[in-house]
Design a protein that fits this description.
It contains 15 helices and 23 strands. The protein has helices spanning 6-16, 37-56, 72-78, 80-83, 100-107, 119-128, 172-177, 179-186, 231-248, 296-305, 331-342, 378-392, 406-416, 426-431, 452-459; strands at 19-21, 33-35, 61-64, 85-90, 97-99, 145-148, 152-154, 164-166, 192-201, 216-226, 256-260, 272-280, 283-292, 311-313, 318-320, 323-330, 343-349, 354-360, 371-375, 398-400, 420-424, 433-438, 444-448. α3 packs across α10 (296-305). The structure holds adenosine-5'-triphosphate (ATP).
């Protein structure tokens, strides 16, 4: 088992076509990343797997795709305009800029929960403990300032206060403002959830660690509405559901931990929050936040919009605001945890001819290509292989490769995670059979051509 470093992973992903630096030919734009031909497939597969489990297979839930730009009042109601900010601090000597809460957490090795601390408490902690600037070692910090993380822009031709709009910093609010619409049009009864996948934007002070923290990212969020008093039961249900889902994607359970928020760390409206954390090369980091948010969001929107958002309970004939459990995860962080779990370098070959193969043990469902179609000899088997490729690619994503020798082509597919390689040879021409090589075991099976689609499709279930 190879523990790949972040730098090694980034360079490998760039080499094979998963992720490139953003705007590269112009010198790049810091902390922006573009997903290449393999990356876009993997990302889409992750989103589809989430949608499958959280919408299609969860009979209580339905989906939504709301606009990124929303009425400014949405963000007034939620408190984002007033307080969606991080504590910004500068080193006076080297001018490096930090999040004060992260400095405290790093200095205390995670033993101090800085999330719930006020700016004064953070500042005093840094001074009392003589915390040094991680860049230059000085202990001369500016006072802490609040830095709002929302990107502001203007809608329409006038650039004045009235036309100000924000890029959403989370997809969740699109769900809350549509609560009544979904309730009315689906005739759902509690409990039920609304799920959404989409881009979010945060002007992070310290983006970094590749796609772990960026200013533009994608979230997969579920707002699960339930009767007050049942929320902790549902919280535990979704907490476990999320954990199991990660494991089913191939994320190693020994690299996951559930971190429950203490009373001091809990947001004032939450009665339970757990972060599922993954052990990245730089330490444990938040992958998935699951929060029981009471009726805070619906109540804020009801108060501010003056629209009644109450639910009429048909069993008791009473009206109330439902409570909400929110599992919220970033697509890119999930992608990273999947890749760190899947990557390996293995010794292969014989005693006298040892070799190392790079291999991505992605579950077939997530693999960018499910099948590689490889003619043994291009001139002889190429036409038949093309025909097979055309047919199979109607069912799942395939790649065709007729360059280099077959061994090299197998290696190429191993390192991008293609689980099955179909070799087209003389037997195919005479008997209509193909051999399928399994990426993980490197064993081969022979199948009739007309069995291939259902054989592969079976492997894609998870
Ligand atoms: P952090 O403490 O790491 O900043 P957060 O607690 O602010 O995260 P949430 O607001 O709970 O994050 O967002 C839900 C999820 O969205 C996170 O668990 C993470 O997977 C993802 N996410 C949040 N911010 C970013 C970001 N800047 N880049 C990539 N993914 C992000």
């Amino acid at each position: 088992m190879k523990n790949i470093t972040l730098e090694e992973l980034v360079s490998y992903l760039k080499d094979v076509g998963f992720v490139y630096q953003g705007s590269e030919i112009y010198g790049g734009l810091s902390n922006t990343w573009d997903f290449g031909p393999l990356g876009v497939e993997l990302k889409n597969n992750i989103k589809q797997a989430w949608w499958q489990k959280f919408v299609r297979e969860s009979k209580e839930n339905v989906g939504l795709d709301s606009a990124i730009l929303m009425n400014k009042e949405v963000w007034v109601a939620t408190g984002h305009i007033a307080s969606f900010s991080d504590p910004l601090i500068d080193c006076r000597r080297c001018k490096a800029r930090f999040r004060a809460d992260k400095l405290v957490e790093d200095f205390s090795n995670g033993t101090v929960e800085a999330d719930g601390m006020s700016n004064d408490e953070l500042y005093n902690y840094l001074v009392d403990n003589k915390v040094k600037c991680p860049t230059c070692g000085a202990t001369d910090f500016t006072p802490i300032r609040k830095f709002n993380l929302m990107f502001k822009t203007f809608q329409g031709v006038l650039e004045d206060a009235k036309s100000e709009v924000y890029l959403r910093p989370e997809t969740a609010q699109g769900i809350f403002v549509n609560f009544k619409n979904v309730l009315r049009t689906t005739r759902k009864k509690l409990p039920f959830g609304i799920a959404q996948v989409g881009k979010s934007f945060r002007n992070e002070i310290t983006p970094g660690n590749f796609v772990f923290r960026t200013r533009e990212f994608e979230q997969m969020e579920l707002e699960f509405f339930c009767k007050p008093g049942t929320e902790l039961e549902w919280f535990n249900y979704w907490r476990k559901y999320c954990f199991d889902f990660l494991v089913s994607l191939g994320v190693k359970p020994e690299n996951l931990r559930m971190r429950d928020h203490s009373q001091e760390e809990l947001a004032f409206y939450s009665n339970a929050t757990t972060d599922i954390e993954f052990l990245f090369p730089w330490g444990f980091g938040e992958l998935w936040g699951i929060a029981s948010r009471t009726d805070y969001d619906l109540k804020s929107h009801q108060n501010h919009s003056k629209e009644n958002l109450e639910y009429l309970d048909p069993e008791t004939n009473t009206k109330y605001l439902p409570y909400v459990v929110e599992p919220s995860v970033g697509v890119e962080r999930m992608l990273l945890s999947v890749l760190f779990s899947a990557y390996d370098e293995e010794e292969v070959g014989t005693e006298d001819k040892k070799d190392v193969r790079k291999v991505l043990h992605l579950i077939p469902r997530l693999a960018p290509y499910k099948v590689a179609v490889l003619p043994l000899i291009k001139k002889v088997h190429g036409d038949k292989a093309q025909e097979i490729y055309t047919e199979l690619s109607k069912h799942f994503s395939c790649v065709y490769d007729d360059t280099a020798n077959i061994g090299k082509r197998y290696r190429r597919e191993d390192q991008i995670g293609t689980p099955y390689c179909i070799c087209v040879d003389d037997e195919t021409l005479t008997n209509n059979t193909v051999t399928i090589r399994d990426r993980d075991t490197m064993q081969q099976v022979t199948l009739k051509l007309d069995e291939v689609v259902s054989w592969v499709e079976n492997k894609l279930l998870f």
